[in-house]
Structure prediction request, 350 residues.
Amino acid sequence: MRFELNADQALLQRSTRDFFAAEYPLDQSRRLMEDDPRGFDAAAWGRLAEMGYLGLTVPTEQGGQGLGAIDLAIVLEEAGRQCIPGPLLDAVLAADLLARGGGHDARLAALLTGRRLVTIARRSSLFGATPGDAPVVAGGRVRGPSSFVPFAAAADSLIIVAHDEVVLADGPFDVTPLPTIDPAQRFGRVDFDHAVTPLGPATLLDDTDRLAAVGAAAMLLGVMSRMLEATLEYVQTRATFGRPIGSFQSLQHRLADMLVRTESSRSAVYRAAWCVQTASADAPLACAAAKAYAGDAARLVCGEAIQMHGGIGFTWELDVHVYFKRAKTLEQHYGSTASQLGAALAAAGY
Prediction:
């Protein structure tokens, strides 16, 4: 089966690529990643909200765009290509969860307009939490630690997964920043002692987790696509022994492997997005497989990009390492490769 974008989706892809290129030139993003304590620019975040990207999957009657997982994958692939900083995927997932939890229109509206940031503090090791980190809800309050909370220091509210329920707490929070190789993806440990508002049972996360896998895999696809393009450009201009290095067969074989990994990831990502959008019974398997494959493929593609750029591939000035770090971060979060393989096997009945 060959998947192709329809006219509206192709327009979304072009307009998103142009918007991200204008708002997030990588030279400016790199300075922002390194110098801004939040890790992203508040003004650019507001323009992102104005474009409706934070509420892509939120129904129109709740203030969102009412689009599906395929549209989300298109946008996040472009976000990966540009390696944009900030909690775009985290905010989209939080908005989707708030919309399905119901009864929180004011907080949802503030999130969709960029006035408040909400992210999700997960307890599952499948999403990177430290074993033993499990906040407990009792008497209308949540207490206990949660690690690897995305953009915890910048969050105004957090959706907390505590054992068998999902709750919402408003800040400020006691946050300990955690080190990360990707300065544009911030994480923190939060020690909770906050009043909470119930959102629903933990099963509310099932759809969000599948959307997270699709979104992260799409961002990895964008990272791979850009690194493949950059490497092709380089090997056609870098010459040795009087000829471009791209003419050497050994490098052509490696480039072919990069292309196969990238296009195979594309097939997996959009198959998974289609399954989510159509509520297919294959969605759990397709989403886990897409994230597992894309995480492994991106590590190879970005590693090869560094190697084929030669000596300059390891330098701080070149942008390749920025993409490699983003790929490694996405590989481990939103369901690590190992945990998603386990989820895929379970979904397949093994």
